[in-house]
């Protein structure tokens, strides 16, 4: 019996080892592409491309499903020839990853070309990112989000802050340099905390005026300069709902492309049940209130479309599963349910 277990253990270990080495090799290859301009230029000829138009990703619809097509360099060339544009356009693409087989993936924004011509040629449409993230397959949304963020960063960092001179990008698009000042610019993300506050039996959700009607989410806020995650959670909860956090723990994180490249750091926080009276900051929030387990479970089942009632009011619904707020709410439900069991 022991021999069978040992053999199985060896097989699992060797599988994990092989998985690791695939991952490590892939990361090393990507790093080489970022650092080596000529290798990356060569990779552009064999890579696949995700297309954007003024930062909106290109999607194809088959039946009710949306797909994010990956085009070959040859297909891109064919499109560019339609516009009598040169292949040099391909150099404007940015490296966003590679497959396990080391086929590099690039994102390319063809915003200067006529959108409808590309759409009819490739039989699809450029779709607003906010919509695209929620209709494509879950594995594609992080890729679209990071690709769009990188393209957006290049758009807004064409000039050096110090000299006002144009900055030059490397081939992969992982940085920009001002040759006059010698300053190197790297893509940036803003850290944002998002926290689900609980008093032990209820959780606190709020609405910003810009949210779609009926949607409630966890509290969020940009980290201040010099602040750590714990301090940001304490401050945001105090600022937005006037409560003092007693304890908190980290859950997970997510890159979020709105308004432009945030690193969402998700936490759970506890406040004392005896000191749980909300004092809402009306400048930032439209509503903030406590929700019981039953109301949360019902809200999770609700579709935005089905939340409108006959009298024009809206029943609460929560962010979709692609948003980290959704994950925090589900974790809270699990935790409450296990406490009740
Ligand atoms: N993925 C998810 O599940 C969720 C993601 N989010 C994201 O979190 C982000 C932050 O949440 P929010 O509650 O609005 O943040 P805050 O509570 O910090 O309020 C936003 C305001 O902070 C100011 N601000 C401070 N630093 C920055 C910065 N680096 N970039 C932009 N604005 C800054 C701006 O004010 P002013 O314009 O007056 O200068 C802005 O309007 C949002 O962009 C939202 O998309 C939020 C909830 C859920
Ligand atoms: Mg906020």
From TrEMBL:
Cofactor(s) listed in the protein's UniProt record: Mg(2+)
Keyword Phosphoprotein: no
Class of the enzyme per the UniProt entry, highest EC level: hydrolase
EC number: 3.6.1.22
Name of the protein this chain belongs to: NAD(+) diphosphatase
NCBIfam families with a match to the protein in the record: PRK00241.1
Record keywords, A-Z: Hydrolase, Magnesium, Metal-binding, NAD
Coiled coil regions in record: none
InterPro entries: NADH_PPase-like_N, NudC-like_C, NUDIX_hydrolase-like_dom_sf, NUDIX_hydrolase_CS, NUDIX_hydrolase_dom, Znr_NADH_PPase
Location of the Nudix hydrolase domain: 187-313
Pfam families recorded: NUDIX, NUDIX-like, Zn_ribbon_NUD
Source taxon at top rank: Eukaryota
Native organism: Amazona collaria
PANTHER family associated with the record: NAD(P)H PYROPHOSPHATASE NUDT13, MITOCHONDRIAL (PTHR11383:SF3), NUCLEOSIDE DIPHOSPHATE-LINKED MOIETY X MOTIF 13 (PTHR11383)
């Amino acid at each position: 019996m022991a021999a069978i277990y040992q053999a199985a253990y060896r097989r699992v270990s060797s599988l994990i080892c092989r998985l690791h080495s695939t991952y490590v090799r892939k990361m090393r290859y990507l790093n080489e592409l970022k650092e080596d301009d000529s290798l990356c230029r060569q990779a552009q000829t064999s890579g696949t491309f995700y297309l954007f138009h003024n930062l909106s990703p290109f999607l194809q619809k088959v039946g009710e499903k949306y797909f994010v097509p990956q085009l070959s360099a040859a297909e891109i060339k064919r499109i560019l020839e339609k516009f009598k544009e040169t292949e040099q356009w391909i150099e404007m693409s940015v490296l966003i990853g590679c497959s396990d087989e080391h086929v590099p993936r690039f994102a390319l924004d063809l915003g200067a070309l006529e959108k409808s011509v590309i759409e009819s040629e490739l039989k699809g449409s450029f779709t607003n990112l906010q919509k695209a993230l929620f209709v494509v397959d879950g594995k594609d949304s992080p890729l679209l989000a990071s690709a769009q963020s990188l393209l957006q960063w290049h758009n807004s960092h064409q000039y050096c802050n110090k000299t006002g001179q144009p900055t030059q990008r490397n081939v992969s698009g992982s940085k920009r340099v001002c040759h006059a000042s010698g300053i190197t610019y790297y893509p940036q993300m803003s850290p944002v905390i998002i926290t689900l506050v609980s008093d032990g039996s209820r959780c606190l959700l709020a609405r910003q005026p810009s949210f779609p009607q009926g949607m409630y989410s966890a509290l969020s806020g940009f980290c201040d300069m010099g602040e750590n995650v714990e301090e940001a959670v304490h401050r945001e909860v105090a600022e937005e709902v006037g409560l003092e956090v007693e304890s908190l723990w980290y859950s997970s994180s997510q890159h979020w492309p709105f308004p432009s490249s945030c690193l969402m750091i998700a936490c759970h926080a506890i406040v004392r049940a005896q000191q749980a009276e909300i004092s809402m900051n009306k400048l930032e929030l439209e509503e903030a209130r406590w929700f019981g387990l039953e109301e949360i479970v019902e809200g999770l089942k609700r579709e935005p479309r089905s939340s409108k009632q006959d009298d024009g009011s809206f029943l609460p619904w929560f962010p979709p599963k692609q948003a980290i707020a959704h994950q925090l709410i589900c974790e809270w439900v699990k935790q409450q349910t296990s406490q009740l069991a």
